[in-house]
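Cross-posting from the modeling subforum.

Setting up a comparison between two proteins and wanted a second pair of eyes on the formatting. Protein 1 (sequence, then structure tokens):
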Amino acid sequence: MVCRMGAIQMEKVTDVPTVDFDKCTGCMACAMVCPGLAVFLLRTENGVGYVTLPYEVLPVPKAGDLARVFDREGRFLCKSKVARVLPPERNSGTALVTIEVPDKWLLEARNVRVGEE
């Protein structure tokens, strides 16, 4: 089990996981190991949305890099700045990239291309 807090439950690997948000601490361990790259984290702060996404393309971006943000169907939403990057851990080849988006795109942003203005 990846979640040390027991916040994620699933019987079989093919089941849709259920999340107990009262137990979730936002450590992002689940996002780094999800084989389908389906886990992402959302938060807002002072009117800015932050989306943390798994990122498996090289080179891994750096905080401050510019990016273009897309929805789950590949439609362009907005330009963005990379706010934070967690590099891949030894047992995972997946980095986590946090991008800044306007609040209105928080629930839509699901893909990012870094290095494009």
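Protein 2 (same layout):
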Amino acid sequence: MTIKDNIFKAYDIRGVYPSELNENNIQVIVKAIYTYLKPKTINSKFLVAIGYDMRLSSPILFNSAKKSLL
């Protein structure tokens, strides 16, 4: 799977649904972020917040990201 690097912004991830950002690659991205953060928080708990806007694809991507974290 190839994920275009132009979807990664300074403070968020944005891409055209479903060609650049979809249920499959959002799971890969979320798992990579979790894998990166987990060792840095060994001695403490950490909270992950997932947000979305009013776009029709937002609930689909949110649920996919949430499923990956759980």
